[in-house]
Every structure is written in C-alpha cells, then in structure tokens.
Specification:
about 375 residues; alpha/beta; 10 helices; about 20% strand; binds zinc ion; DUF7730; DUF7730 domain-containing protein
C-alpha cells in the first residue's frame, strides 16, 4: 500500500500563491498607509467639540430634557509653581474629553518618530486657561514639538479669562510674560484663538502684538472669542461649577468669535488696540448676548435678565444642531455655536432601537 507523505499532501497546487512572510507586522505596511493610520489614531476633533459617550454617567438621562454639561467644562486643574517648572494636576469626571490614541506614541521609537510630527502639527490644542498652556506646552514640551504646533485654542466661560476650573497657586501676574514667550516658541502657529480678555490693552500692548507678529510668520490673524453662559439658575461666578449641578438646572454656552488681522507693518497704535478691545468686549459681545436672550430665550429688550424665568430652548437646537447664523443690531451676521445642548431625538431613537434589538437577540437565544 502506498501512502502519501505528509509533505506532499501539503504542497500548494496554486503556483500564484505567494507565501506569507513568517510574521506580518504593522511595519510591513507601506509607509503611506502607516502615516494614514497614525493620523486616524492621533488626530482628534478639538476638545471643545467632544460630547459625552452614550454610556457616560455625565450624560443627561435620555428621558429628560436636561442640557449636557460639556466634558471640557468638567475638569479641575491645579497648578502649583515649583520653579523652574510647574506641578499640574488635572481631575476629570469622565474620560470623554481625553485623547484616546496617545499610547501609539509610546509603541516604539520608530513609530514615535514618524507619528509625533503628525500628532503635534495636525491637532488643535485646547486650554481653558493660559496658565495650563504655560505649565504644559511652555514648560514640559521639547522645543522640537513646540515648533510643530500649528493650532492652539483658549476658550473660557469666565469673562476675565480666569475660569474657576483652573486654580493657580501664587500670583498670576508674574506668569503673563512667560505665557506669551511660550506662545512665541510655537513658530509654526497658524491658528490662535484667544478670549477677548487676553487682548485687553492693559496687558496686551503694541509691543506684545508686534513681538507676536514677528515671532509667528504663519499667523495671519487672531481669532478672538467669547464663551457666554446661559442658565435658568443664578451662579455666583456667572457660570456653573465644574462639578455640581443645581436641581433643575439647565445651562448651555454660546461661542461667538471674530477674526482680527495681526498687524505686521508696524502701523498698530495704542488707540487702535483700545478701540478693538472695546468693540469686541462691549459691542460685539453685548450684541450677541442680547440676540441670544431676546431671539432664543424669550426675554424682552428691557428685561434681558428675565431670560432665566422664560428660559426654554428652541426645539430645533440640540447636540447635533448647534450652529446658528444670527444678525446683530449693526446688521452684521455672525455664526454662533452652542455647547451643552440636550440630547437629540436621533440619539434617543437610536438608543431605543439598539435596546430593542439587543432585547430581541436575547429573546432569540433562549
Ligand atoms: Zn463623559
Ligand atoms: Zn465617558
């Protein structure tokens, strides 16, 4: 009796078959593909736009009409100067605003070298307070990474740019110049968003503006913004605490912004700086605020603060419909963006359907 040897039986009759490499690793992928994967993993939407996951306990209950407390406002940062650096401790209620793909940068030296330029150059880095930036990017980041950053955004619910979410031990004043120095180290910066208070001529004078223009050749303009809080309850700071919500509290935020060219020809004057600040801080902010209270929240022009009692959100606004164009009394139209709105009907429907199908699957398995 003839028996085929096992070797013969295993010969692949297909001559086109390409033998598999012994071990196919990530590094066998073409470089282009790898770079796209790094980008996919490491580049995220700005922290401002992240919402709570469906299963996060910080999300409003589906059967309620509660507004969402946005993840970026649910953090507490403690900054302690420990010369020459800072100690920084951040506490958050959930992970929804955290970056997800960072472990990729630690995977290997080779991956880190290829991926970190993508991470630093393509993300927008968001901060509630300038001191957070100084303590991290300013004091902890290597110069080569600082120089890759192209987009930085500061946004604060606090009208004076010092949100209670960030606590700095010691005097703030002495860190203002180091903050601007740290910004100037990001020499590839193309986009810089600042709360209007930051360009208050009391501390942002012509000299500072000229230094910025000189150090940052790619920065054509500043985006100056306000983040305005609206709540049916009064808050001693003007906006809710990072942690606590009063019973029945509904709060949302409106961001409005204007692009201001960065003057490079030395023609910027003290008077122009003052006028610009007044225009942004008083006219623009007040006009947007008035429009929100009268057109959306049911207040009258003579009783703007009564909006708290008439407080109700238009049906069309929710987590997925959060951008509006509004016309200001000056005739100017501007785009405003809402944060912390309620759950959309699409989401409610989706969750209900998912639960149903999970239920019927469980039923089928019985
Ligand atoms: Zn969350
Ligand atoms: Zn979560």
């Amino acid at each position: 009796m003839i028996t085929a040897s096992p070797e013969i039986l295993h010969v692949n009759p297909n001559p086109w078959h390409i033998p598999r490499p012994k071990k196919l690793t990530f590094m066998h992928l073409p470089r282009e593909v790898r770079l796209r994967i790094y980008e996919f993993v490491l580049v995220e939407i700005p922290r401002w736009d992240k919402k709570h996951h469906l299963k996060c306990r910080c999300r409003p209950r589906l059967d309620s009409d509660d507004t969402e407390h946005p993840p970026f406002l649910q953090s507490m940062v403690k900054i302690t100067p420990v010369p020459p650096k800072f100690h920084i401790a951040t506490t958050t209620r959930c992970d929804c605003a955290k970056r997800k793909g960072l472990s990729l940068l630690l995977a290997s030296r080779e991956i880190n070298q290829a991926a970190s330029p993508i991470f630093w150059s393509l993300n927008t880095f968001c901060f509630l307070d300038s001191m957070e930036f100084l303590a991290t990017v300013g004091h902890r980041l290597q110069p080569k990474h600082q120089q890759r950053i192209q987009s930085v955004s500061f946004m604060s619910p606090d009208a004076r740019g010092m949100p209670r979410h960030v606590r700095l031990y010691g005097r703030r004043r002495r860190h203002i110049e180091p903050f601007w120095q740290a910004i100037r180290k990001c020499i590839r910066l193309r986009h810089l968003e600042l709360p209007a208070w930051y360009i208050n001529p009391a501390h942002f004078n012509i000299h500072r503006s000229n230094q910025l223009a000189k150090a940052l050749p790619h920065l054509q303009s500043l985006e100056i913004s306000h983040l305005l809080p609206y709540s049916n309850k009064a808050h001693s700071w003007g906006y809710p605490s990072p942690w606590y919500k009063q019973p029945e509290e509904r709060t949302f935020y409106v961001r409005c912004s204007r692009r201001v060219p960065l003057v490079r020809d030395g023609s910027w004057t003290n008077q122009a700086a003052k006028d610009l600040f007044r225009e942004l801080q008083h006219n623009f902010r007040v006009h947007v605020d008035t429009a929100v209270k009268t057109k959306l929240l049911g207040a009258t022009i003579d009783g703007l603060e009564e909006y708290r009692t008439t407080f109700r959100l238009p049906r069309q606004l929710d987590e997925h419909n959060c951008v509006r164009r509004i016309t200001l009394p000056s005739g100017e139209t501007t785009t405003i963006r809402f944060y912390g709105l309620r759950t959309s009907n699409q989401t409610r429907l989706r969750v209900v359907q998912e639960k149903k199908s999970a239920g019927s699957e469980a039923e089928a398995e019985k």
